[in-house]
Design a protein that fits this description.
Layout (H helix, E strand, L loop, with lengths): L12 E5 H10 L10 H15 L3 E7 L2 E13 L21 E7 L3 H7 L2 H4 L8 E6 L1 E6 L7 E4 L2 E5 L2 E4 L10
Antiparallel strand pairs: 1-3, 1-7, 2-3, 2-6, 3-4, 4-5, 6-9, 7-8
Helix pairs in contact: 1-2
Length: 176
Amino acid sequence: VTGTPKNFICLNAATIGVSAEVAARVSRQGAVKRLLPGEVRFGIEGVHALRAWRNHAVQLIADGHSVACRTSLIVVANGIFVGGGMKVAPGARVDDGKLDALTVCNLSRLQVLRKFSQLYSGKHVNNQQIVMLSGAEVRVETVNGAPPLPIEADGDVRGHTPATFRIIPKSLRIVW
């Protein structure tokens, strides 16, 4: 990636890959599509993005532990839920000082579609092709000449890989 690195705050989760591509497509939708309910808008763009998507070689590093594979999706989460109820990081805790990171390794588009509903129950973590790491710092980068991947954070498109995510301890005060 050329240019100056972008810094941004992400409270809940950042996604990298096809899900960020979906968010980018939704943000570019015209006035007519914007009249549709959000779930329909995301569904339409999800089908288009997945149809065009090709897995990319990435390396995911969390506190020195790493995994490299071809992926369609990486999630770096502080919270459990994303995207209107997907339980993408069932073990995440906002107060443990760690980010939960997962990558979907070597799944075809058809396999992704078949497994998609498991994101709502959290059962996807039982799949051997879903690799989970945890750490105070998570780095994501493409490898082997793969192009940079788009990043969305808390629903907004933020840039491209490579990216480093860090916990900023005790930086948000919540009052009940």
